Known about the structure:
The chain is mainly alpha-helical.
Amino acid sequence: MGTPVTTRVQKRRDALRMAGLRPVQIWVPDTRRPSFAEECHRQSESLRNDNQEREILEWAAAVADTEGWE
């Protein structure tokens, strides 16, 4: 038997599996890398004058529920 933390985590995982869920691992960009901000900027710039991007942003603003936001 493992440590109390390990046992507790295993019980939680077992309960989630019993509820019909399964664990999934995903890989995401490492935001700590020095090149991350540069790549974000590059991608943003590539969309600066894109008509489809503008349409999507306008649509998102029109359908967004921002009631109660400050």
